[in-house]
Design a protein that fits this description.
The structure holds two protein chains of two kinds. Chain A is mainly alpha-helical. Chain A is built from ten helices and no strands. Chain A is globular. By secondary structure, chain B is mainly α. Chain B has twelve helices and two strands; from the N terminus they run αααααααααααββα. Chain B has a two-stranded antiparallel sheet. The chains are: A mainly alpha, B mainly alpha. At the A-B interface, helix 6, helix 9 and helix 10 of A face helix 9 and helix 10 of B.
Chain lengths: 216, 281
């Protein structure tokens, strides 16, 4: 994967284009009008065009990720909302990639561990508004998800270990991960309606954030 | 111990394992004795207090913990804390790291695919000279990393038990060093020892990055991945023997040492097994 700054978001945009195309197709296959009976039918692009007022050519570009002549899809927020409204699903789900679902799955599987004992609820109940995001970081550390260490130390006999380079890589990775845990936790915590929610959302945020992947 | 599920692919390795090797598994499970959330205090205490000979029931406890953590990494929210068999853990890890495997293969084969995936990732952090060295170890001509070099390596490991053991040792040693800050206890000589030292850094780097690089999102992978690596090594180790005279590594069914000609009549492994047997009776 390209590591330069522009390459990074471009790669992400390419993934999102693919994801949107896949999710759109998956939803369309089952989104047809059934007039109340049990059949699951397809919604075709013409139906979607009628419901969303988005041009057929645009829809076909979105469903394929690009046009036949290679112009890449780049839908704006309103387009995404029109699609989501027509298909009756949250706009975010149109952009959820397989990796994103896997991370969520990982977080759900990690929940029993994260919620075991009273560690997390103690922390969240004591946390003030300003430092509740920090709880996500503490939890990630407690679950040994962060930081990563390569404890290998080259001694005199052990040659060629590329120790400095490896240490530097791990530092960079940890710094990116730290930010990922904080930002993901902050976003997840925003949904909390009560203390119980806060614990679970913190755990989800912290674990999803820890699985942040970007090759360096 | 009541939750331990009969699991021959796990116990067959643990039964014959040396105390040092079991000790490393315990270090993984207890995070070097620092403890983990969701690790029962009593279990924790019984694991870190064992010093010398690991008694059979404790081996079952270790197996149970691995099964339980394995259960945590799979869709286990509704599993009610019940563990899964080792084979399922290995398959789960293999599919998450993108190893080439199918469920009909035996455990050792799937383990080798996982190790190969880690090796492949480690090559990123090796210099050209180290890469050449690495492939040399396995008698594979190195002409640039690519599918060809990897395919050749896979070929060697599939046919040679010793090559498999060598790779497992390198990966297990690097894992132990990177995650636990300590190495395996074993007698190795010459080429093998050198390979292990040189590659511990890069392989360790791949191990520490494996969680994020392969979307190993659940915290349980912090336990299951190193355990699978360690068990893969222990499984291969049981198939070889070390020459009592010169320390060279020889296949278990060899009658004489290929290095010094020493007669390999009484294998050290057999002696070890007997001690364990007597203790459990």
């Amino acid at each position: 994967m390209d590591t330069s700054e522009t390459g990074e978001w471009e790669a992400l945009a390419a993934t999102m284009r693919r994801t949107l195309a896949q999710n759109l197709s998956a939803a369309l296959i089952v989104a047809g009008n059934t007039q109340g009976d049990d059949d699951i039918t397809k919604m075709n692009l013409t139906d979607l065009n009628r419901q969303t007022d988005i041009a057929r050519s645009t829809l076909s570009k979105l469903a394929n990720g690009k046009t036949a002549s290679g112009i890449q899809a780049n839908p704006d927020l309103e387009t995404l909302c029109r699609l989501a409204a027509a298909l009756n699903l949250p706009p975010a789900y149109l952009l959820m990639s397989a990796d994103d679902w896997q991370k969520l799955l990982g977080a759900l599987n990690g929940l029993p561990q994260a919620l075991s004992g009273s560690f997390l609820s103690d922390l969240t109940s004591r946390a003030t508004h300003g430092d509740k995001v920090r709880v996500g970081l503490i939890l990630a550390e407690k679950l040994k998800l962060y930081p990563d260490n390569n404890n290998f130390k080259a001694d005199e006999e052990e040659v060629g270990a590329r120790q400095d380079e490896i240490d530097r890589d791990i530092d960079i990775r940890n710094e990116m991960k730290r930010r990922a845990i904080l930002t993901t936790t902050a976003v997840a915590q925003g949904a909390a309606k009560n203390r119980g929610d806060l614990s679970i959302l913190t755990a989800i945020g912290a674990i999803v954030g820890s699985s942040f992947n970007k090759s360096i | 111990m009541q939750n331990y599920r009969e699991d021959s692919e796990l116990m067959s390795v643990l039964e014959h394992a040396s105390n040092e090797d079991i000790g490393l598994l315990i270090d993984v499970i207890t995070d070097n004795g620092k403890g983990r959330m969701s690790l029962d205090d009593e279990v924790m205490a019984s694991l870190i207090n064992v010093k010398n000979l690991v008694p059979y029931p404790l081996k079952q406890t270790i197996a149970e913990e691995i099964q339980k953590f394995g259960g945590n990494s799979l869709v286990s929210v509704f599993r009610g804390g019940k563990g899964v068999l080792y084979k399922e853990i290995v398959c789960d890890v293999a599919s998450h790291v993108g190893a080439n495997f199918n469920e009909k293969q035996d455990v050792a084969q799937i383990e080798s695919s996982i190790l190969l995936k880690i090796v492949e990732k480690s090559l990123d952090k090796m210099s050209e000279e180290e890469k050449k060295d690495f492939f040399d170890q396995f008698g594979v001509r190195y002409e640039g990393v690519g599918p060809v070099a990897m395919a050749a390596l896979i070929g060697v490991i599939r046919v040679s038990g010793f090559a498999f053991y060598k790779m497992a040792t390198i990966v297990a040693q690097a894992t132990a060093k990177a995650l636990l800050g300590k190495g395996l206890t074993f007698v190795a000589t010459g080429g093998l020892m050198r390979g292990i030292s040189v590659f511990a850094g890069p392989v360790g780097w791949a191990i520490t990055g494996i969680w994020t690089a392969f979307d190993l999102a659940s915290p349980a992978y912090r336990i299951t991945v190193p355990c699978v690596i360690q068990l893969a090594y222990m499984r291969q180790k049981a198939l070889i023997q070390e020459c009592p005279k010169c320390g060279a590594v020889v296949a278990k069914d060899m009658k004489f040492c290929s290095e010094c000609g020493q007669r390999m009549s009484a294998s050290p492994l057999l002696i070890e097994n007997k001690t364990i047997d007597m203790d459990t009776k």
